[in-house]
Specification:
Blueprint: E1 20-25, H1 53-60, H2 65-78, E2 85-91, H3 100-115, H4 122-129, E3 135-143, H5 145-150, H6 154-161, E4 165-171, H7 175-180, H8 187-199, E5 203-210, H9 217-229, E6 237-242, E7 245-246, H10 251-256, H11 265-278, E8 284-288, E9 297-299, H12 306-316, H13 324-327, H14 329-335, E10 347-354, E11 358-366, E12 372-381, E13 390-397, H15 418-432, E14 437-440, H16 447-452, E15 456-458, E16 461-465
Helix pairs in contact: 2-3, 3-4, 9-11, 11-12
Residues 31, 35-36, 39, 46-47, 93-94, 144, 169 line the site of iron/sulfur cluster.
Length: 466
């Protein structure tokens, strides 16, 4: 491949949502509960295959967190992407289940790499990162729901790491399927983990699977409807993975005995188009499909870019889609017709909904065509046991990421004062809800931004008296 030209940004989609994502993989470790029926066990991080690009990279660097971050930073710089606002994603298994020392060292090394220097401990590394060249603006950790519910230290650890988003492996909402696939937890833990995380301000993504053994298309559709009709769930984000038969997974035996068949590409497409039509405006569909190297796929679809086909079908049928990613300015600009003009006159829309014993206010800055330029999630906890009353769980300005301190040259880029405007509205709503303080869960690299808005560091949160 030729190196990019002077002003060419290679693979611009990677930073189109406003941040530069860096995925870091932790060393292989078996899950404590055993192995889920569909999950491959292949001497690499649980659920991954040896030829997956992040595994290859991590193996080459002996799963060293610092080296992995440095290598991704270098690759982004070579592709001319901005690298001042980094979203760290820790993947590779059930991170909260790892050894305490391993976890703290791993996260510290990630910050050290961003800071370009070694620090004495995690706290110092985070402090340095507040003003570093590569700031961690968001940190995501993947977890099973039961691990968080069962470990009384879980929330403290997540806050110590500077975590802002948790991706929960939920997969389905059916206890009999959980039992059949050896999931090792029930819906009850999903409900508890969701409430726990939301009340402490974390943004929540669910990983959901379509076509699990014992499920049907009707059941899958009903399950996705329940995700948004029941107050117990309502995730902020979704990754939708159709169940595939992989080498090294117990499901392969069932498949070979003719007792299981995954959905075809057409079946997945039909069902996801239906699901997309009722996903609400406050949820972002992060991904549809998981990339499986063909040599590890026994049965299932090989079409990685299924999302493109699905969105094409949605456009052709003129279906109205409310989920976030479909409406983000960066993607809307990329996918617009050549002569189409995108209106940049914005209005504020507030959606209020109740979820997990609290009220959620979802604030959006949108244009006439419902294209999204920025959002803010404010939660008001209603459970008397919660020690925080009002908390901003997310503030995000969409558009092509640009470096901190840089001025935007066009309306599809960030930094147009939209974040400040959304925060003002959130503060007004929190006051109206009779809260005398607003908490914000923020990546350590965004603390300086909040200080400029009058916030102070209190524990792991930025707070402001109202
Ligand atoms: S919890 Fe996730 S990683 Fe662990 S066995 Fe199940 S699917 Fe695999």
């Amino acid at each position: 491949m030729k190196p990019p030209q002077k002003d060419e940004v290679r693979k611009p989609t990677k930073t189109l949502a406003g941040v530069t994502p860096i995925a870091v993989m932790c060393a292989p470790k078996k899950c404590k509960h055993g192995t889920c029926l569909y999950c491959p066990s292949l001497e690499v991080p649980q659920s991954y295959t040896p030829k997956s690009p992040p595994v290859l990279r991590a193996e080459r660097l002996k799963y060293n967190a610092r080296e992995q971050v440095l290598s991704r930073l270098k690759a982004y710089e070579l592709m001319h992407h901005p690298t001042s606002k980094i979203e760290l994603i820790i993947m590779g298994g059930n991170f909260p289940e790892y050894d305490l020392k391993y976890k703290y060292d791993f996260v510290k090394l990630c910050y050290d790499a961003l800071n370009g220097k070694k620090s004495k401990n995690l706290e110092q590394a985070k402090k340095i990162n507040e003003k570093a060249k590569h700031r961690c603006v968001a940190l995501c950790i993947e977890s099973r729901p039961d691990t968080l519910v069962e470990n009384p230290r879980a929330i403290k650890e997540l806050l110590d790491f500077g975590c802002t988003r948790v991706e929960l492996g939920v997969q389905c909402l059916d206890d009999s399927i959980y039992k059949f696939v050896n999931r090792g937890h029930t819906i009850n833990e999903v409900i508890q983990a969701t409430k726990l995380l939301k009340s402490f301000g974390f943004k929540i993504g669910y990983h959901m699977m379509l076509g699990l053994p014992k499920s049907t298309k009707q059941k899958d559709l009903a399950m996705f409807k329940k995700l948004f009709s029941s107050e117990d769930f309502k995730p902020d984000q979704l990754k939708i993975y159709p169940c595939q038969v992989l080498k090294g997974a117990g499901l392969a035996n069932l498949y070979h005995k003719g007792k299981y068949k995954p959905y075809t590409k057409e079946e997945i497409e039909q069902i996801v188009v239906k699901i997309m039509r009722f996903i609400p405006n406050y949820c972002r569909v992060m991904r549809i499909m998981r990339e499986i190297p063909p040599e590890y796929l026994i049965a299932g679809t090989t079409r990685i870019d299924l999302r493109k086909d699905i969105e094409e079908s949605i456009r052709k049928n003129k279906f109205k889609i409310n989920e976030i990613r479909y409406r983000e300015i960066g993607f809307a600009y990329r996918d617009k017709k050549p002569n189409e003009r995108l209106d940049s006159k914005l209005k504020l829309k507030i959606t209020k909904y109740s979820a997990s014993k609290g009220n959620e206010y979802f604030l959006e800055l949108i244009n006439k065509k419902n294209i999204l330029f920025g959002l803010c999630r404010l939660r008001i906890n209603k459970d008397s046991k919660d020690f925080i009353k009002a908390i901003v769980r997310e503030l995000h300005v969409y558009g092509q990421s640009i470096n901190i301190g840089e001025k935007s040259k066009s309306f599809i880029e960030q930094h147009r004062g939209l974040g400040k405007l959304l925060m003002k509205q959130a503060e007004a709503l929190a006051r109206k809800e009779k809260s005398d303080k607003l908490f914000v869960i923020s990546g350590v690299g965004v603390r300086e931004y909040y200080r400029k808005l009058g916030y102070k560091l209190q524990g792991s949160y930025m707070t402001k008296n109202l």
